[in-house]
Amino acid sequence: MPQDHRTAELRSIAFHRLVAERLEHGVLEEASERAERWIADGGPVHAAAAIRWRELLADPHNLRRKLVEDSEEMRDLRQNTPFAGALTDHERWQLISQVR
């Protein structure tokens, strides 16, 4: 069965829900550094998205809520997440198999 767009969005929300649980384990710092590199280097993420990620990452309490928010803004931002590598391959495959 081909993956539809909504399934991808739901997987992204599930991924970010797990990320939200790990923010105090160095994940936040790594994501913040990545967003700062995006801004400094001028890419690969559009400047407006990188700046918005920087704003969100500066407020971890709000970030936890926003990471799983099913809004147009967050759907767009999650497409270029600074949290790449926050989950192991095994965790990602488990998530993919669970969210259909």
Task: Summarize the structure in words.
The protein is mostly helical and 100 residues long. It has one domain. 72% of the residues lie in helices and 0% in strands. The chain contains six helices and no strands. Helix 1 packs antiparallel against helix 4 and helix 2 runs antiparallel to helix 3.
Tags for this entry?
mainly alpha; 100 residues; single chain; 6 helices
* Tally of discrete structural domains: 1
Care to count the β-strands?
A: 0
Mean model confidence by pLDDT: 91
- What is the N-to-C succession of helices and strands? HHHHHH
| Alpha-beta classification | mainly alpha
Q: How large is the share of residues in beta strands?
A: under 5%
If helices are DSSP runs of H or I spanning 4 or more residues, what is the number of helices?
A: 6
Question: What topology does this entry show?
Answer:
Blueprint: H1 5-21, H2 23-41, H3 47-57, H4 60-67, H5 72-78, H6 89-98
Helix pairs in contact: 1-4, 2-3
Brief sketch in words of this structure:
With 100 residues, the protein is mainly alpha-helical. The chain contains six helices and no strands.
